[in-house]
Amino acid sequence: MEQIKNKHLTVSLSAHGAELQSIKDANGKEYLWQANPDKWGRHSPILFPIVCGLWNDTFRINGKEYSMSRHGFARDTDFTLVAQSEQKAVYALHDNAETLKVYPFHFNLAISYKLVGNKIKVVWHVENTDRKEIYFQIGGHPAFNVPDLKVGEPLHGRLRFDEAEPRRIFGNVKGCIAPEHHTVTTENGIFEFTEESFKDDAIIFDHSQLHKVSLLNKENKPEVTVDFKTPAIGIWSPYGKNAPFVCIEPWYGIADWVEFEGEFKDKYLMNKLLPGCSFMSEYTITIGELRAD
């Protein structure tokens, strides 16, 4: 396990899945969910080369069918630590014999984590090393401890959206999405959630409606803020487990439409790269109030 730190934060990382393991402030307070397997045994998986689910766990390239489970293989694959300094770490994954069996493209995937004051910048870099166009989706899935919850207390918390009346879609038909949109009620952008909020699985916003989500404490001050540029975002906690965390998930991609049986390249929110081209984007996790340093 690797560690990066500055005077504000100490962040632990693992090469398995290039996954965040811990985010602690200068007082030792933990902000990241600690992967209790009774609730959910992950911290912050990388979603690649798909986000969410495929219809019948199947996709097609030039008519040939491939199988892939929800969120893809990156989260369960060992990356290589290729660079590290006191405040930055970079992990890389290249295609190999195993990935080519389920995803027939040559690629380089790099995930970097950089500390800037009380912020963690998470950068995704996908490079097409193939001789043909490649297609992919990518996303984050960080889980944050809900503040002010006592042990065993029913899940409840508040999120602040940067849009007062966002419209969600549902991904609760065999893990795939339906096209209808439904307004999510907030109070001037503040969304109060309980476990019942997730009875239909993740709350999904597409159409680039949101670009910032803050997890608030009882004083309505931000404990964690996630800034992103992605076209979609998921908000999730596992229904029926009274888990004391909530995931704020920036996505360049989304599940299949219900009953989608088209080509992989035609999936909703699909990204594509010509040979020799690359994709880069980032999202930022801010712990506590915003600081200039």
UniProtKB/TrEMBL annotation:
For whether the record's keyword set contains Calcium, the answer is yes
Secretion signal: which residues?
none
**Pfam families xrefs:** Aldose_epim (PF01263)
UniProt-recorded Gene Ontology molecular function terms: carbohydrate binding; isomerase activity
* CDD domains to which the protein is assigned, alphabetical: Aldose_epim_lacX (cd09024)
Q: Which Gene3D superfamilies match?
A: 2.70.98.10
Q: Which PANTHER family does the entry link to?
A: APOSPORY-ASSOCIATED PROTEIN C-RELATED (PTHR11122), GLUCOSE-6-PHOSPHATE 1-EPIMERASE (PTHR11122:SF13)
The identity of this protein, by name, is Aldose epimerase family protein
Protein source organism: Segatella oris C735
